[in-house]
Write a structure and sequence with these properties.
Strand order of the largest sheet: 6-7-8-3-9-10-12-11
Number of helices: 10
Low-confidence stretches: none
Structural class: alpha/beta
Bound molecules: adenosine-5'-triphosphate, magnesium ion
Shape: globular
Mean pLDDT: 90
Order of helices and strands: EEEHEEHEHHHHEHEHEEHHEE
Radius of gyration: 20 Å
Helix content: 25-40%
Length: 334
Amino acid sequence: MSVAGETSPPMLAIRDLQLGFRSHRGDVQALAGVSIEVGEREIVGIVGESGCGKSITALSVMGLLPEGTTRVMGGSIEFRGDDLLTLPPRERRQMRGRDIAMVFQEPMTSLNPIMPIGDQIAEPIRLHLGLKGAAVTEHALDVLDKVGIPRSRNILPDYPHQLSGGMRQRVMIAIALACNPSLIIADEPTTALDVTIQGQILDLMVEARDTFGTSILFITHDLGVVAEICDRVVVMYAGKVVETGRTDEVLSSPRHPYTQGLMRSLPSLDTRQERLETIPGSVPALFDMPRGCRFRPRCSYADDGCRRDPPVEVIGGQKVKCWKARQISGVHHA
Ligand SMILES: Nc1ncnc2c1ncn2[C@@H]1O[C@H](COP(=O)(O)OP(=O)(O)OP(=O)(O)O)[C@@H](O)[C@H]1O
Ligand SMILES: [Mg+2]
């Protein structure tokens, strides 16, 4: 397993990304200084409650956010040293699929409903790998086999709606893998699937890393999935990163009060016992963010000092954005 940043520069480095949306209530800041690194051959998980900014972080990397209403207010997204935010649109388009591919939660949003599966998978192969004729079909069948689609030749003429949800998800993963990208961003790719298919898809991701050295940024709600496949984990809360570290360290001794709350709100990872406790309060609205630490209103450790923006404390291998990080010991999640 590789650890990002220790020997080689990271493949992807999102630095202090600030992203705003124009809304009927005025401009709101949805990402307030997000920094995430993904190393070569590394699988990094992003976790956090609904609305914390996981998907828009992914879409920023892909350059797929709606242009009219989105504003990058600061920061950079470096991919192998190039800042994607300043790259000409044409070059950015060429990178999609070839260098960085994305798998979405709902395949119907990214598959074309009126194009046969065979054409959809052939397109990037032709475009990015420069293959022609029979070689294109051969390569397409090869990746479809790899994602576990039985008798894959039979589905080439099918349209997306003719396939089951699990099949569509595999087709999308096949399209993502087809050009052997350096980085795959997977946004909750298994949430809608049954457990067996979910397991197979996670295996595929790990296999892509092991075989091709693919780096993966994996967005999920499921800390069990993180424990299973991620080398490192990034915990987001209300548009900010609150904790990062090696998965085993963060899951065994979460240090940010929010990460601790997340862990308590899940069935125990070790025993699979149901011991659910919810974090009191709710995620603040974008147009009504608390000053200083955004978790403050829900945090049992918070005091007046937390009205200032917390520094990032480095404790062992973990980075924790919390004024109290040194006072709070890593609580073991038994
Ligand atoms: N196009 C948009 N215009 C305005 N606000 C947006 C837009 N897209 C996302 N947002 C807001 O940005 C915030 C982050 O959204 P995002 O979709 O990244 O959350 P998420 O962490 O992926 O949540 P989930 O777990 O539910 O998928 C939310 O408050 C959302 O309402
Ligand atoms: Mg999302």
